[in-house]
Amino acid sequence: MAFIKKIMLKNIKYILSISLFFRVFIVFMFSWFYLIYNHGDSGLFEMINASHNDTFDVVFKYATHIGGGWFAFGIAVLLFGIKFRWGIIAAFSFVGSAAITQIMKRWVFNYPRPSVVFQDSINQLNLVEGVELHTNFSFPSGHSTAAFAVFCLLSLIWLEKKYLGFLFCFIAIIIGYSRVYLCQHFPMDVLVGAAIGTICSLIFYALLKDKLFGNWGNQSLFKKSI
């Protein structure tokens, strides 16, 4: 057990030393927390809601679906197709992070969504046409969890390509932001969801990337090895 822990910590230390994803992620987390601390969770939500325009309405309305469960499932299947090892890591990362988030939001906290908190002034909020507002299970954000779990893992798989780390983190941040923009979550929901997804992918990748999966571990559905 101590040996496994040592290997995992060594992998994490190496990842954090070169990953552009985690550098951007840390800046985002501290900046997002600072804004919440200064303006309050509801206050920052209202500030973001006041920033609506027609272009953002369209972009965030469709971009937010990248954080859905079906997208994560599709990425997992694709990774299984490229290399079974990656598919196994994706399965643990995505299912593990989703399980933590769902347990927290459904059975631990069960916080109301913005549509309930602001129900007396809902007509004053900027809403996006065609977006159905949910009412329950606000904290933490499931879409943010899934988005950061997926794109963190993708950045780890292609760790040496640092520019992809920046791109993947930027996409995940856009998805998290969209959840507040679309009045589905509060900023703190996104902050915690992003942390859960990122940490789960980092831990499972560091723990399993060097694990022996047998001859099939590096096999691909597309070619013999990759």
What would your notes on this structure say?
This protein is mainly alpha-helical. The chain has one domain. Helix content is 70%, strand content 0%. It has ten helices and no strands. It has helices at residues 2-18, 20-39, 41-49, 54-63, 69-82, 84-109, 114-117, 142-157, 162-181, 187-208. Helix 5 runs antiparallel to helix 6 (84-109) and helix 8 packs parallel to helix 10 (187-208). The longest helix is centred in the middle third of the chain and has 26 residues, at 84-109. The protein is elongated, with a radius of gyration of 18 Å. The relative contact order is 0.19.
Summarize the structure.
This protein is an all-alpha fold and 226 residues long. The chain has helices at 2-18, 20-39, 41-49, 54-63, 69-82, 84-109, 114-117, 142-157, 162-181, 187-208.
- Can you count the helices? 10
Q: Whole-number average pLDDT? A: 91
Low-confidence stretches: none
How big is the Rg? 18 Å
- The helix fraction, in percent, is 55-70%
- Please trace the helix and strand order, writing H or E for each element: HHHHHHHHHH
Itemize the secondary structure elements and their pairings:
Elements lengths: L1 H17 L1 H20 L1 H9 L4 H10 L5 H14 L1 H26 L4 H4 L24 H16 L4 H20 L5 H22 L18
